[in-house]
């Protein structure tokens, strides 16, 4: 089954009692049992819910995994992975990543004795020098947030397997439409399903997908024991969103390319960060592991002027100034004060997240309207 068919039919069954094409929203907390322990596969909705099961089966299908798990947020999904560790364990993470992930790692789990190394992974071989007897996980975001760095998943997977480590890939920016980390050797794929999978800015959710049964059982235990699950209505919304993922991603990619090229040619723009440019440092790796280059990009105002960046953001009309990404509507953001504010300034700036950096989530509107919106705002600086 090809991807465009999987997003609609993968892992899905029509409702056996009614024939409903979409799974019902099972808005229930508990399930009747004929005798103690004798039930129809469901006992309590924290443990499992039929609507969530339908979503989890879809997640596994579109990522070419065997097991999917849905959580109450992307951070809840990340939290479940780190709960596989014990005090004294170490994680090697990319140094350019979502600020909430950095905050969870440093403000929560470092207090429990887990050590994190934040390094540049654009050359995957850099990972090797940080591996020691305590290393358990390599954490990869690619493309990274917000600098759109590209990390070689296959090369990272070879390193992980050589040292018997787990490779976790945050696939939020790319989605399985553009890249399939499990096929490239990753052990766990993570999503903020709030973003492109849901696709309509109306739900908050996270997801994990794995192939290995033993690893899946550990994560299912954590999911149930910790309880950070999503409800049936949210599960229904993301499942519905997945059914148009392929159509939306095509337009996100087309519009992203048009906006990136417009900005790159603009005299008031400094740098544009988008992996589709041939001069992007890892453009060839992006071409190798991605189907297209996505709808996320970041750019700076020439001269790195903070006030100019804020003026642009305040005067965009089609782009909405808001956190998050991946919805049908275009969003703009200021990483230094919004999504990445929890990362200390000196650490942010090492990776390029300076005060004049603007991040765009390019939606599915008319590309001409998006470019005109940027043009009008840029004329004001």
Q: Can you tell me about this structure?
A:
With 381 residues, the protein is an alpha/beta fold. It has 2 domains: 3-242, Type I PLP-dependent aspartate aminotransferase-like (Major domain) (Aspartate Aminotransferase, domain 2, 3-Layer(aba) Sandwich); 246-378, Aspartate Aminotransferase, domain 1 (Alpha-Beta Complex). 35% of the residues lie in helices and 15% in strands. The chain has 13 helices and 12 strands. Helix 3 (74-82) runs parallel beside helix 4 (99-108). The radius of gyration is 21 Å and the shape is globular. It starts with a helix and ends with a helix.
From the spread of the alpha carbons, the general shape counts as globular
State the order of secondary-structure elements, H for helix, E for strand.
Answer: HHEHEHEEHEHEEHHHEHEHEEHEH
Quick one: CATH class of the largest domain?
A: Alpha Beta
Q: Specify the CATH homologous superfamily of the largest domain.
A: Type I PLP-dependent aspartate aminotransferase-like (Major domain)
* Separation of the first and last Cα atoms: 51 Å
Low-confidence stretches: none
Which range does the strand content fall in?
15-25%
Supply Rg: 21 Å
Mean pLDDT: 97
Spatial order of strands in the largest sheet: 1-7-6-5-4-2-3
Q: How many domains, as an integer?
A: 2
